[in-house]
Amino acid sequence: MSNAGTNELLELARRGCIKCSVLNYWMIYLPECSSVVSEAEDVVERGGLEGSLILTDEVLGSPKGVLEYALILKPSELRGLVLIKLMMASSIARSIEELSGLEARVRWPGDLVHADRLLGRVSIELPRNYVSPHTIIVHSVINVNNEPSSLGSNEVSIKDLVGPVSRSKLLELILRYFDELYADLVRRRLRSVVSRVRKYLETIGRYVVVATQSEGVVEGVVVDIDYDGSLLIDLGNGRLVSIYDEDIIQFKTHT
User: Fold this and answer.
1) I want to staple 183 with a disulfide (CB 3.0 to 4.6 A). Which of 12, 22, 54, 122 is the partner?
2) What homologous superfamily does CATH list for 8-198?
3) What is the residue-wise DSSP string for 78-127?
4) Residue 68 DSSP label
């Protein structure tokens, strides 16, 4: 754990590139910005490489101490994007545990939680003026060193629970663990990806009530995730249904 100052992300970005087995993370650092997603969209429009990573010390209007970044990816197909979201979220959970000792879990489809309190969130965005095939932006926000006064009633930060940690060390761990999963995805080792994601998915075994556009309201126990990241729900009559992120209107979990 560390009391690292505000320049730690800049020091990481000065390395220029973090090379991993499949992805090269090209670091684009901003001291502050209004939206890392908008900045990532600008990079896409300029022909940015896969692995381009936009990170900032502060997003205007957001609490200080948050770790927020946007990663540009170019997967071979755009089906099953929720699986990529889960891959990033589980990489974050694993990294939080390793760096801080704090147990973090993933709530499908992209929330990070500790004891039912929100630690962060991962989302997938398609760039504006979408012209580049198979380009997505993975947007992550993690409550790292936020002060308790900046948090909502159902939120928590790592600092609030175990003390301050280094955002740069956390980010580097996340990127390396995500690369391991992305390498398996590229090589179509979906069984390995799902197995490693499942370890951190706290939604499995929970009773859920889901309002969907296609099936109406679905209620049952979550038994697993499929290879595309969809949620498999047992309705209690021997019937399994798959729920897709983009089909959801409202999603509630119960213990």
Assistant:
1) 22
2) Bira Bifunctional Protein; Domain 2 (3.30.930.10)
3) STTHHHHHHHHHHHHHHHHHHHH----EEETTTEEEETTEEEEEEEEEPP
4) E
- Which helix (DSSP H) or strand (DSSP E) does residue 253 occupy? strand 248-254
d(CA 39, CA 41): 5
Domain ranges of the chain: 8-198, 207-254
Confidence of residue 79 (pLDDT cuts 50, 70, 90): confident
Task: Give this prediction's pTM.
Answer: 0.93
Of the listed ranges 33-37, 44-48, 84-88, 234-238, the one predicted with least confidence: 234-238
Is 127 in contact with 183 (CB distance < 8 Å)? no
- How far apart CA 169 and CA 20 sit, in angstroms, is 16
Q: How many CA atoms lie within 13 A of 14 on its CB side?
A: 5
Report the residue count for the chain.
255
